[in-house]
Request: fold
Amino acid sequence: MEATEIRKLAALEDTHWWYRERRALLRRALRRLAAAGTRPERALDIGAAGGGNTRVLRAHGWRPLALEYSAEGAGGARERGLDVIRADARCLPVPSASLGLVVAFDILEHFDEDHLAAAEIRRTLRPGGTALIAVPCDMRLWSAHDVAVGHVRRYDRASLRAVVEKAGLVVDELWSWNVVLRPVAAWRRRRSTGSDLDDLHPVVNLGLRTIITAERYLPVRSLPGVSLMLRAHRPTDDGPGRD
Reply:
C-alpha cells in the first residue's frame, strides 16, 4: 500500500465506520476465545498501520506486537505507545511457535505469494494457537480502489480456504462480512477512480455505522459480502519439526 494510503488509513481508523466495526469484530472474537478457555498471551498484529487492532488486543489482556511494513504506519503506531517492528509478512522476524494469536486483517491480498504469508502465520503460532484473517472478497467487486491500495486479488471462499489449509492451518470458521452494504459498495466501486478511504461527513458515517452494526444480528454470514473473515488454528499435534 502506498504511503499516502497508509497515512489516510491511520488518520481515519479511529472514527471511520469500517474500521470501528472491524475492531468490534475483533473484540467479539477475543471474547469467544476467552469463553472457550483461551488465556491471553503473546500476539502479533500483522499490517497494524496506526495500531487500532493492536490496542484492542492489549485492552483484552494480550501482549501484542504490531508489525507494519511502511515507515508511516509504524511511526503512527509507535506514537500511540505500541510495540512495533517493521517487517515483511512473508518473512516474520518472530520465533517459531511463539504466539498464541496472529491477527492478519487485509494482508494476504497484497502478495502474489500469499501462501508464504500464510505459512509464516502457521510457523509463528504455537500448536493450538489461533489465526484471525480478513480479506476482500469477490473479483466482481474489483475496481480502481483495489489498484490504489495495492491489492493483487480478491478472494472467494474456496481460494481463501485453500491458501490457509495449504499452510497447515485448520479452518474453524469462515463467513462473510459487510453483506448488507454490498450493493452500495458495488455501485460505488463501479464509479471509483481511486481509493475509497475517505473522511466521510459525520451524518453519513453514523448512518453507515448503524447499518453495519445491525448486520451483527442478521442471518447473512453465508451470503456474498465485501469481505471474508476466517478463524483457524495450528493443530495441537503439529510439533516444531515442521517449522
